[in-house]
């Protein structure tokens, strides 16, 4: 039902998420933001079970901010991703596992951009592009076909648009709009929302 | 206990009537599938002494032993109370924001399976002078959690000398419900506040802020009416009549909603409750107006 996608370029990461908050067959919200800002240059995209997403994402968000307050400097994206994965793993075999699928995207001043794929079984993989949800089945092959490590920002947005076009064409569920953000060495930038047809 | 064993009393079915099985002993000692009729489990290594002698019956031991029965008995689920009737979330509640404040409307039928358990329930309850909550899901759970929420908000007000904001209230409620996620607690509340804020909180953990929410089995029908005619610039009367119409149409189609409609209008001055209206009369009025009678 929900869809997340991330594309890493040479000096940026482009991420997008759909805007639907659904409850059984009803769309309860059309403008729901699934991205959580962990720090100035790290975004956590979170989908999954209704309450688990917000609870887990806010927990990670507050802990990353606490680290900055205690130590005076921010966690790098790789460190934040590993911290998130560790928390997921710790809860996995408890009585209250979190059923959430995540993409963590960030820009590190020394290592450059990074996109991390995590799923509810707490697997972690650093990937050049990634997607979550049923939509991933339809779009990963498009990403495989057209992705190059040296994409420019515009080319990455075009690739994203290709993916969303495919979803609108073949995906059975209606995902009318997507929030798009770009992270680079300047921080997080909001790009134009991608909507389907006239609204 | 020794006397019981000598007399072989534990093996008789009378034992079940005389001594109510305490949760500790029934989880750990007895064979759940045979309901204790086989007698207490005996230790293999210690001369067939009943196992319960190895766990001292301390005053607080029942709470300790109850904590995770699944760790003692892999595969035996903890005993839960069976519901006496099938639950259904039969309700239509709705809330929306417009220029004149917030409208909250709901039907008044409480259903238990196919039975109308009560035709005159109040599904919209005020929490304080400027916050009203519409409830759907299990009636008992909603009643309880509304009281808990009212208590917590009042305590906050007394401690901090100011009212907690709506989003703070919603977050507090959501965090209070979180430990019960996965259990049978079923509440779906819409908090309607004076500050033109509408927040939907449900026991699954969802917490959504928005301009229009409808919850319950009749909600798709209500959305059908509301989505077409709702706009920001409605007058107070138009908004009230739209809310009534939406609940009416939903109760017409949904078997689990009906009877009357309650309506609250929340403004910066507080909430104002409209007189409860019987939808049966509304149906006949509507049919007559459309010339179908």
UniProtKB/TrEMBL annotation, chain A:
Does this entry carry the keyword Cytoplasm? Answer: yes
Q: What would be one Gene Ontology cellular-component term for the protein? A: proteasome core complex
Q: Does the keyword Cytoplasm apply?
A: yes
Top-rank lineage group of the source organism: Eukaryota
Keywords, alphabetical = Cytoplasm, Nucleus, Proteasome
Q: Gene3D superfamilies under this entry?
A: Glutamine Phosphoribosylpyrophosphate, subunit 1, domain 1 (3.60.20.10)
| Localization annotation | Cytoplasm; Nucleus
> What is known about what this protein does?
Component of the proteasome, a multicatalytic proteinase complex which is characterized by its ability to cleave peptides with Arg, Phe, Tyr, Leu, and Glu adjacent to the leaving group at neutral or slightly basic pH. The proteasome has an ATP-dependent proteolytic activity.
Q: Which family does it belong to?
A: Belongs to the peptidase T1B family.
Task: Give the protein's recorded name.
Answer: Proteasome subunit beta
Lineage of the source organism?
Eukaryota, Metazoa, Chordata, Craniata, Vertebrata
From TrEMBL, chain B:
Origin: domain of life: Eukaryota
Which InterPro entries would you find in this protein's record?
Ntn_hydrolases_N (IPR029055), Pept_T1A_subB (IPR000243), Proteasome_bsu_CS (IPR016050), Proteasome_sua/b (IPR001353), Proteasome_suB-type (IPR023333)
A Gene Ontology molecular-function term?
threonine-type endopeptidase activity
Q: Matching Pfam families, A to Z?
A: Proteasome (PF00227)
Location in or out of the cell: Cytoplasm; Nucleus
Entry-linked CDD domains: proteasome_beta_type_5
Record Gene3D superfamilies: Glutamine Phosphoribosylpyrophosphate, subunit 1, domain 1
What's its catalytic activity? Answer: Cleavage of peptide bonds with very broad specificity
Q: Which UniProt keywords apply?
A: Cytoplasm, Hydrolase, Nucleus, Protease, Proteasome, Threonine protease
The entry's cellular-component GO terms read: cytoplasm; nucleus; proteasome core complex
Q: Name the Gene Ontology biological process terms.
A: proteolysis involved in protein catabolic process
Instruction: Cite the active-site annotation.
Output: 91
Which family does the UniProt entry place this protein in? Belongs to the peptidase T1B family.
Function, as annotated, reads: The proteasome is a multicatalytic proteinase complex which is characterized by its ability to cleave peptides with Arg, Phe, Tyr, Leu, and Glu adjacent to the leaving group at neutral or slightly basic pH. The proteasome has an ATP-dependent proteolytic activity. This subunit is involved in antigen processing to generate class I binding peptides.
Q: How does it assemble?
A: Component of the proteasome complex.
Q: What is this protein called?
A: Proteasome subunit beta
Q: What is the lineage of its organism?
A: Eukaryota, Metazoa, Chordata, Craniata, Vertebrata
